[in-house]
Structure formats: C-alpha cells, structure tokens
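Protein modeling request. Please complete all fields; requests missing the sequence field cannot be processed.
Requester role: graduate student
Desired output: 3D structure, token encoding
Chains: 1
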Amino acid sequence: MRVLAIDSSNYVMGVAVMVDDIIVGELITNLKKNHSIRLMPAIEELLEEVGVKPNELDRIVVAEGPGSYTGLRIGVSIAKTLAWTLNIPLVGVSSLEVLAQSGRYFDGAIVPFFDARRGQVYNGVFEKGMPHPVRKSDDQIVLFEEWLKVNKESHDQFLFISNDLSNHKETIESILGDKAIFAPISSTNARPSELAVLGAKKEPVEDVHAFKPNYVRMAEAEAKWLASQEK
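Delivered output (231 residues):
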C-alpha cells in the first residue's frame, strides 16, 4: 500500500509517504507561514523525491483536527481533492492522537495539547500502549487550569506534549508540581510518519465529499455570526 499523509492542522506542516509499511519520505516544518502556499509544493516535492507518482497512491490520510481553523481547511481540502481526483480512499485521524504517539512508552497519563487561546486548550488523554497509546478521553476543548485541578489525582504522573508549552507551563507546574513531566522539544512536532501509520489501519470515510474537519468547537467567526442571528 502506498499512503500519502498530510498534516496542516497547526503551525507544524507535515507530509509523509509510506510504501508497504516503510516510511520512505517525511517532510516537517514548524513555521508561522501560509500553508495554502506551501503545502501542495511540499507534497509534489516529496512524491517526486521518493519516486511515487500520484496515480500510484492507494490512500490519502489527513490530520482532521482539532487545531487551527484555517490550517485544517487547507489540509482537508487538499486531501479531499486528491482522494476524489485519484479515486482512492480518504482517512481522517485526530491531530491529538498523532501527537500522542511520541509518548507511547510513558507510564502515566499522556496529554497532547494545542493552545486554543483565552486559557483554553484542545487536549486528549492517552495511556501507555504498543504499538500505539490507548485513548482514555475524547478530543475536547477545556479551560486548562480547571481541567488540571479536576484531574490532578487521576494519575501519579502526566506527560505533556505540545509546542505551546510556554503558554501553560507555569500553570501546569503550579497545580501538578512533581507530577508534571514535559516532553523534550524533539518530541513536540506531530510526525506525519505517525499519521501515515495510524491512517493505514483505520477505516476510510464513506463519503469523501461529506468529510469535514473536527474543529471540536465552532470557528470564532461562525460562533459570532450565529450569536448575532439570535439577537
């Protein structure tokens, strides 16, 4: 099976190609640059480098969210277009589940998260498992300080995996103290190779056209528009 994995759900932009259970190529950047300009050229470059033509692909896998509203739209739109044009299956995988793979050996709560502004984060909880961590909660958006207080006694240790750690580290340490463990910076980029492996084992979506990103919450602009209509 030839799998193309695409992730533009956050600042990290990643593309990977897997051929017969071997990751033959992977491209990752963590830059505040426009994914709409960079993603398709990155896909084309990687496919050419590994010698896989688009019509040789068997499956498209995309990080479906949660994350950046704009980033998700870009990645999912490109993934849907490729899957429909090539007439191959499309698979969506949680962006948090991809990030959690970095903590698969940790004996405690594995907590990947993305900043959601105003003291909120998108997070999920996983526990040690092979070949993949075991999911213990749905993806959610929470007030992080309240979530930490409520869950403080649920585990002896917590591993936090995030590129947004600097925004929340002080709060985490003030509530959890020695229970808090922080992933090294080399483990905080969601790996598109992990996305490819996860997506290769999941069931494809039934309707490519109907597939939508998992925003977990409405986009801020949409929420404001709905609120204005209710007045």
